[in-house]
Amino acid sequence: MLIVQILIIFIIGFVFGYFTFSIISSKNKSSKALKEELRVVKHEMEQYKQDVADHFSCTTKLINQISKDCNKLNSHMTNSSNYLIDSNFHLLESLNKDN
Predict the structure, then answer these.
(1) What are the angstrom distances between the C-alpha of 39 and each of 23, 29, 83, 95?
(2) How many other C-beta atoms are found inside a 10 Å radius of the C-beta of residue 14?
(3) Domain ranges in the chain?
């Protein structure tokens, strides 16, 4: 009878231990999956931050280039208009002298 009681207690302990281990093991698997997901999301966030930084760096370079081009255009327009005004003025003077 004592052996049967010990055997029943052993079986109950084994079943209890098995279920406890299963619960803890599933929590560890879930925890590992969450940690992996967190690692992936952090990596994606870092990549996104780098992409945003690259975008603004490129945008800054393009805006600087546009500014330089606008300055060149302004200078060209100023020089051309001055030249054309002077040429027109000289042409009008010569026409007035002829009259």
Answers:
(1) 24, 15, 66, 83
(2) 10
(3) 49-98
Provide the pLDDT for residue 6. 80
The count of other CB atoms within 10 Å of the CB of residue 37 is: 10
Written as six digits, the tokens of 13 are 């302990």
Mean pLDDT over residues 92-99, rounded? 67
* Cα–Cα distance for residue pair 49/22, rounded to 1 Å: 40
The pair of structure tokens assigned to 85 is 């005004």
pTM: 0.54
pLDDT for the residue numbered 92? 64
Type of residue numbered 42 = K
